[in-house]
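QUALITY CONTROL LOG
STEP: pairwise intake check
CHECKER ROLE: data steward
CRITERIA: each record must contain a sequence immediately followed by its structure tokens, with no blank fields

ENTRY 1 OF 2
RESULT FIELD BELOW
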Amino acid sequence: MTRLTTGPAVRSRVGGWPLQAVVAAVGVLFAAPGTYLAVRLTVGDGDLLGTLGSRDVLRPLINSVTLAAAVTAAATTLGVALALVVARTDLPGRSLLRVLLPLPLAMPSFVAATALIAATGRGGLLGWLDRPVGFGGAFWVLTVLTYPYVLLPVLAALSAVSGTMEEAARLLGRGPLVVLWRVVLPQLRPAMVAGGLLVFLYVLSDFGAVALLRFDTVTRVIYESRLLNRELSLTLGALLAVLALAVAWAARASPATTPVTTTRGGRPPEPVRVGRWRVPLLGAVWAVLGVALLAPVAVFVTWAVRGSTAIGLGYSGVGDDLSFLLAPARGTVVSGVGAAVATTLVVLPVAFATARRPSAAGRLVAALVTSVFALPGLVVALALASWAVASPTWAAGLYQSLPLLLLGYVLHFGAQGLGASQAAFSGVPRQLDEAAAVLGAGPWRRLVRVDLPLVLPGLLAGAGLVLLSTMKELPITLLLAPTGFRTLATSIWNAAADGFWAQVGVTSLCLLSVSAVLTWVLVLRQAPGVRGARAPAAH
């Protein structure tokens, strides 16, 4: 009788030294940006210590940290409050709010900042309102855009935690605020820290909003000094990379991220009756939604209908030719699909190795891929651009080329493709591989005929996330895109710089429509606690 768990056919798997060599090459590729910045700073001719101690470095660094800390505190408070209101009260319309409140994820920061600029100040729709530039404007825009990073994990935590402890506390005579502080919030702490970490890293790496609203953070100074003061831009890029990685590492190592033991199962607690606070709470929740999502869309729709006041410059109103959208739409498709395909292919060997042939080297490479995602996109682009400019003639030709642009996307968004691919390979039962081996299928045939068809949905999901992120990406595209190459994001940026608000409105509505659909399909439908989300598969 044939034994299913022994024999050379079962032990034989795709891999060996060729797989390890490919995984090592991927690790070198993802380590390149940080390594290049470190080498340039340590062996360059400039005064590194003098540059680090200069006001040109300290001022934007302090501004970046201050803004990131302030937005993190505000977005965490707002996200937790909204999650508690829609998950633990009897507020009317909670099901609809669960769907609408996370949608600001679909709006890039530079689009929201553009809407604010187009609506206020001289020439704006609300010209009597002063334009909130500087720290105030950046804080306002980034807070209302980043609270979903806290809202979603907190909603997921609330949906997974049983209400037994809350009901017990209420039976003991504890009021709603005491139950919230002593019972609910301690169980939500890991979700709050995880969401707050995402907010902090998002704000730290943001370029579009702070640049448009003229607040001197590290990213804005890097972009403006990249040509005239390369030493300053490289120094700030390295500092930003170190700071982002340090924050990510500290948060992972913090005891606050350790899941709290909770009582799971059972029915959810009875919702808290808001009574006379119903109208004020509804007004506050819809005000947040209005500022974060409805108001920017209304600004863009108004400008699109109203058209440009300067005849012949940009889009002139309803019925005008929309052919100006063709080139940026084509560029968005080319860069997005190219980045999705390239990223999936590059991280596929790492995902396979870590899921099927785990080793210390494979885990190290996976950690490298993940760590680059914590780096601001502007830092990745700066490293690649500086390398291309300083390289020999054959490599210098890559500067502002489509391959270098796609490489920037792959490095920055590789972690998204890797996570989905790892989950897909881990979900393939080993018994199928063993059964195929017993039937005489070789390692490569089993990979092609058994593994790949089963992991294809996961690979497509990861590719979709990369596509969504690439569509909304701005600094990498601005620094690395070929001359004349346009995407919807860069078209919005350029039209805003020229003051063509009607063209900004039409282009932004186009980008937001596609982005919202992809965000719902790829992100929100998978998020526990959001109505319409797919239930986790039973094991």
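ENTRY 2 OF 2
RESULT FIELD BELOW
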Amino acid sequence: MTIYRFETFSLDSDRVELRRGTGLVHLEPQVYDLLLYLIRNRDRTTSKDELIATVWRGRVVSESTVTSRITAARHAIEDTGPQQRLIRTVHRKGYRFVGSVQITEPALNKKETAGFPPALENFDQHEKLPAGSRSIHSKPAIAVLPFANLCADRRVGYFIDGVVEEIMTALSRFPWLAVIGRCSINRRFLDVRTPHHELGTRYVVEGSVRRDAERVRITARLIDADTGTLVWADDFGRRLGNTLDLQKRVTASVVGAMVPRLEQSEIERIKRKPTACLDAYELYLRAMSSVFQWTEASTREALAFLHRAIDSDADFAPAYGMAAYCYVQRKSYGWFTDQAHEMAECSRLAQQAAELGKEDASVLSRAALALAYVVGDVEGGRCLVEQACRACPNLSLAWYVSGWVRVYLGQPDVAIEHLMKALRLSPSDPLAFKMHAGIAYAHMFAERYDEACVYVEKAVRARPNYLTGLRGAAASYAFAGRVEEAGRLISHLRKLDSRFRISGLDELFPLRRSSDSSLWVEGLRKAGLPG
């Protein structure tokens, strides 16, 4: 393990982390690689061309791109351009790290230094991932390897390098993932045929690109490095156009489709471990598995796992966020036994989650939905979920929550836009039935009843006892003239929840437009719901 210490900071090249004291400093992978390169070559000035050749692997980038990454690195270590206390700009020469550095590193093993290309000769080439590196943190480490260019067009090579860079940046916005920096991969694994387990990561992303006339086709694969098995694979065809825009669209498709499968793979892995041996993160994953069973007993089990996670680590934000989300489930399915107490507990958990997880989009999203739906603080939920969408724009969960919050706020068209984006990002998401239900309610409140029926049928078909979906279906059917079908749904609903009546509708949804509340009441009354 090699750790570079300067001022109050420590940069760990094996864990791929920058810390200030004991706190983790968030860095995009490219900014991390840049800072690491400058520190390792602090005995001299490094030119912009050299940085492009190593950090950007020779890809064509503008000087402003390099400058913006230097600015980001300075910001991370609390330096500034005018001050230049740690990173100094040498006029017309480049940059140099001038801070005092202390190094903790293993003894040099000469056998490990052979065969590295000259462009990387200034890295600490003797560094090697420790045998147990995957168990240093329970959170999974993931490496994104260079994608293979299967055509002779160099422009396609530059394009796919940009896609790989964008994927790494997007994955770095998921705090539960440890993304291995590009320089670390280049330094140790120059041949993509290297066995994946040697990367010291739990998962590896690899892929290829080919061009066909005016289209490019990108194939991406997610591999479990422990077993060598394929977790997920897909291909994405896009028409060539604006390169930067195309890179962003491809990245959104790849990351949006891959992350839910990655999360599910982690859940399945944790199921094989004895519960007595689980740490806070692993208990959180077990809770997720229980939540997605959608039963009252499994939700209680999830809360038990999450309380254990909080007892194990009182600052673990995801546990608070998921616990708050459990109360969303309890309210949605009519499982509340002490409404005032459970609402207060949900509020406490959501506020704690938002405070501890300010940079975690998943935590912010779950806290936002809990505040809006359970507590009734719709504006507070909107603020949190907007923060989540900015922090991680490729997170389907954030757009799903944002869509439902827009339903509550009486903005049906914006709600549909956000929920459709959530579905595009993650078509096979475990929450897809809730996304369809949200779209149905938005159409209903916009008085587009036939469209509402189409989407609510998708929700109920996926989850026949989903009360929120059934309530929307009954009202939509009644307005669409399918009164007999609506009546049958009311009978089914009353068997699932005997307390369901017109008089209790105000407590079910925090609708901000009185016209939406009146419309829903009218629809359910037409369907035969008693007062």
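INTAKE CHECK: passed for both entries
DESCRIPTIVE NOTE, ENTRY 2: Residues 273-393 form a domain with the Serine Threonine Protein Phosphatase 5, Tetratricopeptide repeat fold (CATH 1.25.40.10).
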